[in-house]
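Weekly puzzle thread! Below is a chain. First person to post its structure in token form gets bragging rights.
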Amino acid sequence: MQFSVTAVQLSILLILGSLIFTPQPSAAQQARGDAAIDMIQAFSQHHQDLPRERLFIQTDRDSYFWGDRIWFSAIVTGGTDNLFSGISRLLYVELYDDAGSRIDRTFVRLENGSGNGSLTFGESETRTGTFTLVAYTSWMLNFEAVSLFTKPLQVVSPGMVLRQAAAAPAEARLHLAAEGGSLLSGVPAKVAVKSTLPDGRAVSVSAALRDDAGATLLTFETDAYGLAAFTFTPEAGRGYEAVIPQNQNSVALPPVQESGARLSVSRDASGGQFVLGVQLKGEPQPESLTVFGHVRGRIFYLAEMELFDGRGMGWASADLFPPGIVEFVVLGTGGALLTKRPVLNLPEPQLQLSLSTPQTVFGTRQQVALRHELRDENGRRIEGLASLSVTAQPEDTTVTPPRSDIYSSLLTGYAFDFDEPSLRLAYFLEQGMAEHADLALLTAPEQSFAWEVLQNPEELAGIRLPENGFSVSGTIRTGFRGRPVSEANVVFAMGPNDDDLFVIDTSEDGYFLMNDIDITGSAQVSIRATDRRGRRNVRIGLDEQFDFLPEFSVRGPQLFDEVAGDAAEDEALAARIAQARQNEEQHIMAAMQIELEEITVTGEREDFAETLSRMATGDVGGTVLRVSDLPELQSLTIYDLLMRLPGVRVAGTTVRVRTGAIQDTPPVILLDGAAIEEELLGTISASDVDNLSVLRRPEQLARFGAQGANGVISIRTIRGEGIPGRNLPVVSAFLKGFDEPPPFFSPRYGGILPQLTDERPDTRVTLHWQPNFVIQQQGRDILFWTGDVPGTYCATVQGLTPDGRPFGGELCFEVEG
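Winning reply:
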């Protein structure tokens, strides 16, 4: 199978069968048409030169208990054909709590557009509510602000029951969008309405449309999904706003224009044709306008629409377009953008994924054979890349959290807000609620990056390049006065024996950058520098490894409240969850211990580099002491500060971390990301320290190899330049690399060798997780075992074919005790 957008030649495609031109155009029409075609070609070329990446994350389930491990797989597509992306190889996946704070981040290696990993809840205090998984590549950050992938995850307490959170209409606010983007005087306008609470929950409200004289023109109500629409005819010179009388929250409509264009798009009675209506006001009045339709930047429809008294109509077959968001665009004189209107075109998926098991009811600890088969619209078996999750279904079905599916997520890209009406898109499509889906699209943020760049190419000056690996950057300064050193020689050495050498020069301001470094876990890099005359009296300052990433505050809609359930059931469920978590983490630790022993014995990977990079970024996941926020601590010694970290023992100038290790050896000590010897601790002033952190949990230290077994202490100074006054010719730092996914715990019963849970209760919530496997044409069975907990379990499969078509399916079965 070929899984890469790089295998496809991205080119301008104007489908000749869809070109509709007026016969025998006039000279004016010809000149205007040439300018319009030039703009359309520039628009198409823009999407070829800057292909967008789209992303879908599948998690093993949609709700978790605090402390569970979140397993996920990723599919990244690129370009106009939605094929597996070969643009980026580094994917950032982050977890935000219900307050919008990031509590975990992992770095996923993408191979031909797919990858997988896991997230944890870290050591932050126990919280429940709607958490948010966020994923993106650096390349995606160049485009529209909504280009991040976001997915809500419900985190609950054992035994608690979810109920729909009570809406407070007093906090409701409105979002309005006029179809076509503008209001024209005397032209009836359709206005889409969305009403939400500040956190994005949908809320039903009654509201009124008023003019600038305070007169109420009409009233309207949004439904339970927070959506509505109304039509009115704006007048020249008047202003309009929509008001919620209950709380007086209001939002203004766009100013009324005397000239411009309005585009309306609807479906005909059969649903097979898009009906386009254009109305133009102002002088001069051209004989025609150019209209085109595209999906993901690829042109599928182009027409010269004749105008009569400023009005024109056109039709476009829905079959012309691939599934996705079709954007119709109207161009005026000189190819100027007049108006545009997005519409959804998501017909029923033509691919059929069949899932089956030999029976519908299984016993505990019984093997299940899941047969899977993928067929195209002609009934032929085809291949695809997919992920499988088999998980227990909640007993309480009174609430239905929004579910994301690969079909609507990948094909609509990131055109929607992160609010409840938008999160219900898959539900709207499943239930045939086309009007609701259209209103959610109309009230979403405008996608305007391409047009902004075409009008102002300087917007591309600061564009981020795709990442194929990790980077290290910094500044070289003179040793005495600290001035930037231009044209300095910077030598990077990596590997156990510094076998990999790279040499670059600094810029005029002393800056250096080494990027696309392929690192798994973490790696030690030695950096040497001299000025252009070969003198070593320079200072090497390293930047934080990921300080170029934006700081997000992502808070999803808090859709549910917890209600106490039966106390006895709560206690039993809590014990079950704790047992499942213990089994899983012990399995992961055992696998990591085996790997560590192999590293120690063979010496093939004995860099203590294995994932030390969390220290280099300051994102350690352990206990952090913020010294710079506490003035009373700044008069203490560095040893006094270290004693305030849990698990750290200090005797004189000897520092140890309690990890359970037998050896009485120093921990790894990092100062601003660079390893230092224990005796250099005394040269650090507490007043220079921004924060200290310690790692000592076994599951954290297992990533750091043999040298990290005795704990890791990270010290971050305010200046980030290490020990003042020390001009070291060589700086060693640890760079964070790709996180290796831990093994998923899926026991096999009935074998010769005993399993970890043979003598323990098997209380798994997720029975099986298999990311990124190939569905083969000949078909095959996936084997897994049930646990000890009766109930309903569902197998969910979602994936993508090599030609960019998403698919999915689900099969449920019972487990009886």
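Puzzle host: Confirmed. Bonus trivia for everyone else. The radius of gyration is 30 Å.
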